[in-house]
Design goal:
This protein has about 375 residues and is of the alpha+beta class. The protein is built from six helices and 16 strands. α3 crosses α4. The longest helix has 12 residues. The chain is globular, with a radius of gyration of 22 Å.
Length: about 375
């Protein structure tokens, strides 16, 4: 999943005590896995990442990691899957709606899958906010424990104890004068799913009581759905203002344009929110939101995208299991994306369970998309 990018400089390390307490389902061919957490630092008020990484992964079907930290200096914000496990199931105490994050001194992340994950790389990505009253020059420590890892022998885990620290540093200045809506995405932007994301009803219906699942989605509708699902941590550029944006969507569009997720039309300074969006364009937006490794995306077997401008975006989304092709190996990149397809893709990101009931009478209970729409319909 996307590695969130922030204005984080002068990386130092974090105290990590990686210790496996329970393992089962022996994986005999394991070569010796290493689990560790990466270094970080940040200024008061900044968001920082703590990345749990695994190398020489012999195959994991289940793992739980717990981080302990000083709640007077750090506040947990979110946790998400790293590249090693993509969008597979993750549970965390951060996502419990009733939890007051400011009171937590430990956070957990648990992965559970039907089959073994064998990729090495980032396993979990935790995001913390450095409290405003943290003193520059102060040092705080984090302890990480691997509380459970199935399908790995205990002796095949390299238990690392690394003395390191989180330094509180001076904030870095950001010059956003050139970050207009028609530029490339800005780098210093944090994008993460909202708390309780798998249960959020993020796609509104219409005032006449319909959902219109097979209607083509508009730019406004896509922005609103993503706005309801994701938090975007960036200073909004006040100069980003399109002359045709409906009042209801002004804040949403300005936020997404400031972050470089969507662009306007510089020729006439319009956004054209009622315009429909293609399957290719939606894939590009998803790649930006999740920071997928587009340049490394391999061909996923679609016959009609070899010369398409969005080929890499489509392949990256397909590689992560977010999109599928049509019949006969085609993706139809220039076809408009339907509202039911939008919620199906977004539900794959949030791992939302299929809904069983839907208040909108025009959503056919026998349609392939019923469960996805029922889970997302607001």
């Amino acid at each position: 999943m996307k590695r969130t990018k922030y204005s984080i400089k002068a990386f130092s390390a974090i105290l990590a005590t990686i210790f496996c307490l329970s393992c089962f389902s022996v994986f005999a061919s394991a070569a010796g896995a290493s689990i560790f957490i990466e270094n970080t630092s940040g200024a008061p008020g900044e968001l920082v990442e703590v990345v749990v990484n695994i190398q020489n992964n012999p195959g994991i079907a289940k793992m739980t990691v717990e981080l302990s930290f000083d709640k007077n200096i750090l506040t947990p914000v979110s946790v998400k899957a790293g590249s090693a496990i993509s969008y597979k199931t993750i549970d965390s105490n951060i996502d419990v709606a009733s939890v007051n994050l400011a009171t937590l001194s430990t956070v957990t992340a648990s992965y559970s899958g039907i089959t073994n994950v064998t990729r090495s790389g980032d396993f979990f990505v935790f995001t913390f906010k450095v409290k405003e009253n943290a003193k520059v020059g102060e040092t705080t420590f984090i302890t990480a424990k691997c509380k459970e890892a199935s399908n790995i022998k205990l002796e095949n885990i390299s238990v690392l104890t690394e003395l390191a620290k989180v330094d509180i540093v001076l904030p870095q200045s950001n010059n956003t004068d050139d970050d207009k809506a028609d530029t490339t995405p800005v780098k210093d932007v944090g994008i993460y799913l909202k708390r309780g994301y798998s249960k959020i009803k993020y796609m509104p219906g219409y005032s006449d009581g319909t959902f219109r699942p097979e209607q083509n989605a508009t730019r406004y509708e896509v922005v609103e759905a993503l706005y309801n699902l994701f938090d975007i941590d960036i200073k909004v550029d006040p100069s980003v203002a399109f002359k045709d944006v409906n009042t209801k969507y002004v804040a949403m569009v300005r936020l997404f344009a400031s972050a470089g997720i969507v662009n306007g039309y510089p020729s006439d300074n319009t956004f054209r929110g009622e315009k429909t969006i293609t399957r290719a364009e939606f894939c590009k937006i998803i790649c930006i939101m999740l920071d997928l490794e587009v340049s490394r995306a391999r061909d996923q077997g679609f016959d009609d995208i070899s010369k398409h401008w969005a080929k890499d975006f489509i392949n990256a989304c397909a590689k992560e299991g977010l999109v599928q092709g049509k019949s006969e190996g085609r993706f139809d990149p220039d076809s408009e994306i339907k509202r039911c397809e939008v919620v199906t893709i977004l539900n794959r990101i949030t791992r939302a369970k299929a809904g069983e009931t839907c208040a909108y009478s025009d959503v056919d209970p026998n349609a392939w998309y019923f469960g996805a729409v029922a889970a997302a319909a607001k």
